[in-house]
Amino acid sequence: MMHLAFLLLITFTDGTFSKEVCSYQDVLDYLNLTADNSMFKTTRPVLDYKQPTVVKLDIILFAILAVIEKTQTFIPFVWGIMIWNNERISWDPAEFCGITQISVPQEMLWKPDLFIYEMVQKDHASQNPYMRVYHDGTVVAEEAMKVVSVCKMDVHKFPFDTQSCNISIGSAIHGLDEIRLLPSSNSTRITQFSQELVMSQGEWQFLHQTVTSHNFTLGKGTWETLTYTFTMKRRPLLHVTNFLLPVLFFLILDLASFFIADHRGEKLSFKVTVLLAISVLLLILNDILPSVSHKTPLIATYCIVIFALMLLSLLETILVTYLMEKDSASQEKLKLKDDREDKQETVKTKNCNTEDTKQTPCLCICTASDKSLELLPMTQKVDNSIQSEESNALLQILEELKELLNILNLHLGCRQEGGTSGHWAARINRAFFIFYVTVVSLFLCLIVFAWST
Questions:
Q1: Does residue 345 contact residue 402 with C-beta atoms inside 8 Å?
Q2: Above 90 in pLDDT, residue 140?
């Protein structure tokens, strides 16, 4: 749509007035600027071909749509402004009612063939169909675009990382002797513009923007490029709460499992469950990080070391459980052996009671148990004329003493023979707990220091 501007000039002459009307079409007619006139759009707009066309450029960041680490893709929404001079266009605003600028379709004028080197996908956003032309020949073209570009990312400190992505702009066919690319604003001013106009940052916080110019030679020509570098910092809260803290909580649970009794199966099953939970979190990490990286990400080191420590803790629990089971088996074996000996001694005692009652009671006592030899001097003092009822009472007392001696021998045997494995299990558990706490504390301090520097 062609915009019309009207200016009414009223002059009084002998009581009458005259009215002068100006329009943008008058300027176009004066310039002979039509859609069919190829003079304005086929060649560079210079009167002397040896003079280069100076193009001033600004790129302002409007939004950070996405930063994809997996594919190393940077997707910003930017606003580009190009300014150059068309030497074939000029008019005197005084002759056209003060009109200093007009808007014309972009297809009617020559436009610099600039493109973005890092762009990997065509922009499908709606284009601005017009450009502004000023009376001195200055042409201003503004364009909003969604840029899908590749970006070399360093995820070593993920999720506490800072990324810098470039947008390099240059001409496709015009070399340095034909087009000069200059930044319209310096790095400080362009950063201020972007910080004021940025509408959406998402996971990322925009820090600053710089612009640099450099030349490169390819074949027989030299080209000039402008490189805009966008520096942004990741907001790590989401990854800390959804990943880092759960892994740390599982590590604390694994430390707390040392206070669970070793002779039960709950401790072993608990450690296996925690280890499986860490494995699920590692699968989530695999979907976040890129498959190729120059350095191993610290978060991967964090997970691998914690996983290895928990695996080592599980192996230690298996070893301690094996030693405890071995100790229990030895105790059961000794107990069965003592019970069998008790039965044999009881049979001998009964046989002794069935013998001739005229036999001296001390002789039966001597054959009842070899372990009661210390009591023989006492039994030898028994008078031969003691009644049979008194001898039976003495025999019952001896049997009770023998049972007490067997219980004492059982405990002594457990400590001497069957308690060795249990003693080593307790020492291993205590030493590994001290080692585990020391290594975990040292590793967490080192990983926090590496993330913060």
A1: yes
A2: yes
Per-domain boundaries in the chain: 42-235, 238-379+389-453
d(CA 73, CA 152): 8
What is the structure's pLDDT at 343? 59
Per-residue three-class SS string for 144-196: EEECEEECCCCCCCCCCCEEEEEEEEEECCCCCCCEEEEECCCHHHHHHHHHH
Within 13 Å and on the Cβ side, how many CA atoms surround 129? 3
Q: Which CATH architecture has domain 42-235?
A: Distorted Sandwich (2.70)
pLDDT digits over 310-324, tens only?
999 999 988 888 887
Q: In angstroms, rounded to a whole number, what is the distance separating the alpha carbons of residues 89 and 67?
A: 43
Instruction: Supply the pLDDT for residue 327.
Output: 67
Dihedral Cα 388, 394, 399, 403, nearest 10 deg: 170
Mean pLDDT value across residues 65-73: 87
Q: Which residues, listed in sequence order, are joined to residue 211 by a DSSP beta bridge? A: 228
Q: Which of 158, 151, 156, 170 is nearest to 229 (CA)?
A: 151
**To 5 degrees, how large is the angle CA 56–CA 62–CA 68?**
110
Structure tokens belonging to residue 315: 């192996």
d(CA 4, CA 28): 12
CA pair distance 319, 432, nearest whole angstrom: 11
Separation of CA 296 from chain center? 12
